[in-house]
Amino acid sequence: MIDPYHSGSILSPMNRRSMLTRCGMGLGSVGLTSLLADEGLLGTSNPLSSKMPHFAGKAKSVIWIFVNGGPSQVDTWDYKPALEKMDGKTMEGFDRFTGFFANAVGGLMKSPFEFTPRGQCGKPVSEIFPYLGEHVDKMAFIHSGHTESNNHSPALFMMNCGVPRMGFPCAGSWATYGLGSNSRDLPAFVVMSDPLGRGLPKGHAANWGAGFLPSVYQGTYFRPKGDPIDNLHRPKEHDITRQRRQLDLLSTLNQRDLIKNPFEEELAARIESFELAFRMQSSAPEALDISSESEHVKNLYGFNQAKSKHFASQCMMARRLVERGTRFVQIYSGGMANQRSWDGHSDIKGNHSGFAAETDQPVAGLLADLEQRGLLDETLIIWAGEFGRLPVAQKGSKPGRDHNPHCFTAWLAGGGIKGGVSYGESDEVGHKAAVDKVHVNDFHATILHLLGLDHEQLTYRYGGRDFRLTDVSGKVIAPILA
Amino acid sequence: ERLEKAVDLGYLQALGRLPDFDEREASLAFLAEQEHSYIEDKLSNPRLLALTDFAQTLLGLNEFTYLR
Question: What pLDDT is recorded for position A13?
C-alpha cells in the first residue's frame, strides 16, 4: 500500500479524497482511510499547513528583489576593464538579432560608471551602489547566468517559472507547495510591484501564478497604493462575532459539500482561503504597519529620502512579513518596459542611476536590518532580473543597451549563502557567459536547495508526468553554499 | 414557518435545490442567533439584517461559485 510520506513526490497533506484517488481501490479503501485517519496519518484539508522539507535547509524564507527590465551586468556588478579599452570598436561577429532591436546595434560601449573595490573581498562594484557595496561580503555573485529568451515576458516566465511560456507554477508557488506556510495569519507568498504608477512587470500575474499547482499556492498580490489587501479593514458596522457566525455557517455547509465532491482539492483550498482572510483581518494590519518602526530603522532603509521612500516601505514590509512567517516575498523594482524599469534601451546611465538610487539604500538597509535581528542566516535574499544587457550600444540620442539573454549577473545573500564570493565568469566584454555557466534551472535548483528542497524530488503530477520547477535539468551551485 | 420558507427559497434561488435536513437546521440556527445578536445591538430590522447575512453566505458557497 502507498506510504503517504515516501511516495516519491511531496503530496499535499494526504486527505481522504487524495487517498481514494491515488489508490484507485474504490469503496473498499474507505475503511482503510478511516483507520489511517484514526491513526493521525491523514492530514487536514489545509494545503498550506507547514510541511517538512526534504532535508534541513538554512533558509526559512526568501525575499527576491526582482530587477525588472533586465539590469546591465557591466554597469552594475560585472567589472569589465577590457570593455573600457575597446570602447567604440565594432564587435566582430556579433549577431545583431541577439537583442530586440536588430537595426540599432552600435559599437562596444564602456560603462559610464566607475568601479571601486568594496568590502573585505575587494569586489569591484559600480558607483551606483554606494550602500549595497558595503554588503558585498554577504553576497555570492553569479556572473555566468544565461537564459533562453531575449524578450521580457518569456524571460520573466523563465526566471519565475522555469519555462519561457505561461501556465507554469512560479518559484514561490513551488516553495510554498513544498514547505507550506509558516504563518497561520498571513499569506505564505506575497508579491509587491511598483507603487509609482509605472505598471506591472510584463506577463502580469502569470509571474506569480501557481500554474497547475493548486491555486492556494499562488502569490498574494499587494496593491501598490492604499490598503495592500482589499477589505482588510472590517467596516465598523460589521461586528466580528456576526462575521464569525457567517463564516461558521459557510464552513459547515461547504464541508458537507466537500464530502459529496471527494476529489476536488480546489474546494478545500477555497474553504481555507476564507479562514485565512478572516485571520488576516486581525493580523495583517499590524504586520503591514511600518509606521511603528523606529526612526533609526526607517533611516537605515532610506525611508526618509524622497527617491527611495517607496522601495524602503516595501523592503520594510517584506522584513516584517518574513519575521511573521511568510515564506516568499517578491518585490518588483520598476514597472513596464523601457524607462519605467531597468530596461535601459536608451540612456543606460540615467536609467540605471535612477533605479539604483531608488533601491540601493533600501536593499542595503534590508540586509543590515535582517543581520542585526539575527534573521539573515535564515532569510535568502535574491537580487536578479530576467536577463542581462549587451556590451554593445543601442544607438540613439542617448545610447543604451539592448537585451542580452546570454549573460546576466545576479547575487544571493543570507539563507545559507557563502558571502564574499563570485561564481562563474562572462567573457572579457560581458557578452556571453563563459566559465561555469549558470542556467536558470541551476539558479532555481540552488534556491530550492537552500530552502531544504531537492529540486528533483519536488514534483507534481500533471498531464501524465511529474513536473518540477527545474523541468529535466538544473544543478545546485555548490561553491556558493556556506 | 416563515423562516423555514425563507431558507428553502434561499437555497432554491441560489443553488437550485431544497436544503436537506441538516442544512435547514444549520441555517435556521444561524438565523436565530444572528437575529438575536442584531436585537441585542438595538439595530433596526434585525430579521432583515439576519436574512441578508444568510443570503450573503449562500452566495459565498462553493456550490454557488463552482459549476458542476
Answer: 47
In sequence order, what are the residues at sequence separation of 6 or more whose Cβ sits closer than 8 angstroms to the Cβ of residue A295?
none
Handedness of CA A385, A386, A392, A394 (dihedral sign): negative
* Residue appearing with cell numbers 484507485: A24
Q: What is the largest CA-CA distance in chain B?
A: 42
Per-residue burial over A8-18, b = 16 or more CB atoms within 10 Å of its CB, e = otherwise: eebbbbbbbbb
Q: How far apart are CA A230 and CA A233, in angstroms?
A: 8
Q: Do A261 and B68 touch (CB under 8 A)?
A: yes
The predicted pLDDT at position A45 comes to 55
Structure confidence at residue A295 (pLDDT): 96
Burial of A30 (0-12, 13-18, 19+ CB in 10 A): middle
- Residue A155 CB contacts under 8 Å (≥ 6 apart), including other chains: A70, A147, A148, A149, A164, A386, A387, A403, A405
Q: Give the residue among A400, A386, A270 at the shortest CA–CA distance from B60.
A: A270
B62: nearest CB among A241, A242, A267: A267
Question: How remote is the C-alpha of A62 from its chain's centroid?
Answer: 7
- Tens digit of pLDDT for each residue in A3-21? 444 433 333 444 555 555 5
Q: Is the pLDDT of residue A42 over 60?
A: no
* Averaged pLDDT, A350-374: 98
Q: Which residues of B touch A253 (CB under 8 A)?
A: 23, 26, 57, 61, 63
Yes or no, beta carbons of A241 and B66 under 8 Å apart = no
Nearest to A348 by CA among A385, A409, A392, A408: A392
CA distance A237 to chain B (A): 10
Mean pLDDT of A246-273: 86
- Residue from B20, B37, B62 whose CB has the most chain A CBs within 10 Å, to mutate: B62
Nearest C-alpha of chain B: how many angstroms from A180? 23
* Over residues A448-468, mean pLDDT: 96
Give A-chain residues touching B60 at CB under 8 angstroms: 250, 274
Q: Does A246 touch chain B (CB under 8 A)?
A: yes
